[in-house]
Every structure is written in C-alpha cells, then in structure tokens.
Design a protein that fits this description.
mainly alpha; 9 helices; elongated
Length: 222
C-alpha cells in the first residue's frame, strides 16, 4: 500500500479511529468509581467488570494503532502541501506524546485490574486516584498536535489543505489549553478534527492523484 492509497482512505481511517476510541472511553469505560472511592469499593467494581475492563484496553489500543497510522500519513501530507519539514515533524512527535499518555493510563489500568484481583486494595485506590488525574500528557499532546497542524497549514504559501482547517486546528489547540474548557477539546474538538482532517485529505488525494511516471520511448534507427 503506497502513500497515495493511504491518503485516499484517510477519511474512513480517521472515522474508524474515533469510533474505536469512543467505544473504549465511552461504553466500555462504564461508570468508573471516582477518585475518592475506597480501594475496597473500586476493587469490587473492577472484579465485577473484569471482561469489560480488558476489552476497553484492547479496543483503545486498536484505536491508538490507527491514530499513529493516521498521523504518520498526515505528516507526509503536510510536508507535500507546505514544503516544510519542521512543523510536520512536530505534528508526528505530538501524536506520539498523546499516544504515550494514553498508554501510561492503560498501564495504570492493568495494574489496578491485577491488584483488584489479588486484593491489594491500597494499590487499587492509588492507581484509581492517579488514573483519574493523569490527563496532563494527553492534553499536552492534543494541544501540540492541533496547534502544530494549524500553523503548518496557515503559514503555507502553496495551495495545500484548506485554511479553514488550519484555523479550526488552532481553535482545538487553544481550547485544549483552556483549563476546565479542555473537556470540550477532548469530547468534541478531537473527534471533529480527526474526521474533518481525514476527509479533507481524502478528497484532495482523489482530486489530485499523483502523476503516473511517463516512460520514455526509445526509437531504434534503422
């Protein structure tokens, strides 16, 4: 599968990524105990939802794998459309930070599951408390990802991705840095940004397919 093929499928790829993350963080997360709940109650909840907890980890992991593929291709698209290298690399690095933050959260979740299974209530309470308050890496990655994408689109003098997408990217990045309002960047901004960026990229790739190499004809003189 070459880059042009991936670009044409960026829209569906972004949509499937959001669906996987939504299912993982939404229905499969259930009514998780709050940060102040005792370790005994948290362990009781985890043990009664063991299959759901493991399913959540696998579904989110699948979504993260798709997200890495999405942003890796986005970096190439931004390079081609803007002629830059620095900002597209920042976009990819920001996505890695975002993914790493979620992986750390998943690691804490696994520790909590195993601790709950073994009756280690102090560890369960600690992991639950940390897991409920470790959004900094995720928000930093999200803000840097969307801000870098927005600046890369807006500073480009070439006919690349739409400027309105650049302004929307900046808006999502700013909201992600806005303290309590960052919730809206996670709940609405990131899903809309992923889907919009994906389908804009797909549409551009379909309308501007790469030129096919032209073979040179060699005529033999008789």
């Amino acid at each position: 599968m070459n880059d042009a093929t991936v670009s044409r499928w960026m829209g569906p790829l972004g949509l499937v990524t959001i669906i996987a993350l939504f299912v993982g963080f939404g229905p499969l997360s259930g009514n998780q105990p709050s940060e102040n709940v005792s370790g005994v109650k948290v362990a009781a909840f985890v043990n009664s939802h063991m299959s759901q907890e493991w399913a959540q980890i696998y579904v989110i992991g699948f979504g993260l794998a798709l997200l890495v593929l999405f942003v890796a291709q986005l970096r190439d698209v931004l390079r081609d459309t803007s002629g830059q290298r620095l900002l597209p690399n920042v976009v990819f690095a920001a996505a890695i930070i975002l993914v790493a933050g979620i992986i750390v959260d998943g690691t804490l979740q696994i520790v909590m599951i195993l601790a709950a299974h073994n009756g280690e209530y102090a560890i369960v309470k600690t992991m639950n408390f940390v897991g409920q308050n470790n959004e900094l890496t995720f928000l930093f990655g999200l803000a840097l990802l969307t801000l870098a994408t927005g600046f890369c689109i807006l500073v480009s003098r070439e006919a690349g991705l739409p400027k309105v997408l650049g302004w929307f990217s900046l808006l999502v990045g700013v909201v992600a840095c806005a303290g309590p309002l960052s919730f809206f960047a996670i709940l609405f901004g990131l899903p809309i940004w992923l889907v919009a960026t994906g389908f804009v990229t797909s549409t551009r790739a379909r309308r501007n397919p790469p030129a096919a190499p032209v073979a040179e004809a060699v005529t033999a003189a008789v």
